[in-house]
Structures are given as structure tokens and as C-alpha cells.
Amino acid sequence: MDVKTKVKMLVQQVVEAYLKEQLQGKEKEKHSIAILLGYQSQNPSVVLEAVTPLIDSYEVTLILSKEWLPSHAAFSGKPYVLLDETSQQELNRIVESCSTLVVPVASYRLLSKLALTMDDELAVWLALQYQLLGKPVVIAKDYIEPNVYQQIHAPHSVQERLQSYIRQIQADQVKWVPLSKLAQTVDAQLTAYKEKQSLILAKHVEKAFQDGLKEIVVPDKSRVTPSAKDLAKELKIQIIKTSL
């Protein structure tokens, strides 16, 4: 292979790598995510460091408690709402528009209530709405999972109760990860969500009819069973596929 051919191949590889990187960047920009900072942290700077890659990579809506307001300047002017001053109607709009909910700082209260499906707190209610729509929920475990000394000294019953809650939310497909893997996990979950295939059954069409709906909007890759198609035609309900 002569020098000219080698140079041509190298240039082509560089261009292809650049285009791939650019396309991946554009793919990320299509997604909007919500970051919930509703619980206090002993080390807010560590949390901000973990959240920064997400701020830089995605369209982000911040949902903040008042305790986190002083830190808002570190978020590059990203839009935010105050959790305790925002109606459920407005939060629902965020759920509909944002593909993923990220909780960098959690609490034992959130863990237990989410595991038990108790929605008497806005933060838990918000997470449940994401789960009900099959959208990813990513929770950082650093402030909840017992450290080694707590594991040594805490009563077994307490540890087992915590582990049962953790097992439950994991069974509910909530991702439970360290802060250090937050951005990496969000990337992976968004990719999986994009590739997700929902299955539309006749019972879903029947429920839509009972709720007075005239159409069901589902992701592009969704599969509709023949019985669901037949029932939708009979009940004059339109099944609309749309991109994320």
C-alpha cells in the first residue's frame, strides 16, 4: 500500500470517527431528562460534580427543593421548578416531556415509600408517574445503602428491611447506582428506552374505550396484537405510533 492510499484511509477513519461522535451528540440532545434534587446532601459539591455531565449532555429540567436553590448557579442557567411550589398538573407535563427521572440524592423515606407505592409525597409521586409510563428512573444509592460500619453494627432486622425495599424497587426496574456511575447509567437507560418495544393488547384498547379515549399514542417500535387491532377498529379507537 503506497503512502497516498494510507493517508487517504487515515483521513477517512478520522472523518468517520468525527461524524459518529457528532451523531451520538445529536442523539443525546433529542432527549430531555428531569433531575430531582429534593433531598439534602452532606456533600453537595460531590453531587453537583456527578450531575454536571448530564447537564452538559442533555436538555435538562431541574426540580429543586428550596435547600438546593443556592446551588442553582452551578447549573449553567438551566430551567428549574420548585418542587413544593409546583402543581401536580405542571409536574405531569414534565413527566410527559422528559424521558428519564434522575435522583442524585435520595432518602430512606423515598426508598420505603417508593417500594410500598405510597404517593403522599411529591417526590415519590413524581417517581411513580415515571414508573407508570415505563420511563427510566435512576436513583443514586450513596446516601441510603448502609456502609460497611453500619452493616457491621446495625441490627439484622433493620438491614433486611432496607434490603427488601431495595430489592423491590430494583424489581420495579428502578436503577440503583452509585453517584460515580450516574451519567453512564442514564446514557444506557435512554438507549434501552429508545429500543423498548411496548406490546399493545386488547385489554389496553378496552381500557382506553372505558376511559373515553379516541386514540392511543405509543412508541414507534410498539407491537400491536391482531386482537387489539380488531378491537380498536370495532371501537373506533386510533392507535398512533410516534417517535420518542
Written overview of the protein:
The protein is α/β, with parallel strands linked by helices and 244 residues long. The chain is built from ten helices and ten strands. Strands 3-2-1-4-5-6 form a six-stranded parallel sheet, sandwiched between helices. Helix 2 (44-57) links the parallel strand 1 (32-37) and strand 2. 25% of the residues are buried. The model is unreliable at 25-29 (pLDDT under 50).
List keywords for this structure.
244 residues; alpha/beta; 6-stranded parallel β-sheet; 51% helix; globular
List the secondary-structure elements in sequence, H or E.
Answer: HEHEEHEHHEHHEHEHEEHE
Q: What's the pLDDT, averaged over the residues?
A: 87
Task: Please tally the β strands and state the result.
Answer: 10
Strand arrangement across the biggest beta sheet: 3-2-1-4-5-6
Bulk shape? globular
Strand % is: 15-25%
Measured as a percent range, the helix fraction is 40-55%
Number of helices: 10
Main β-sheet description: 6 strands, parallel
Radius of gyration: 22 Å
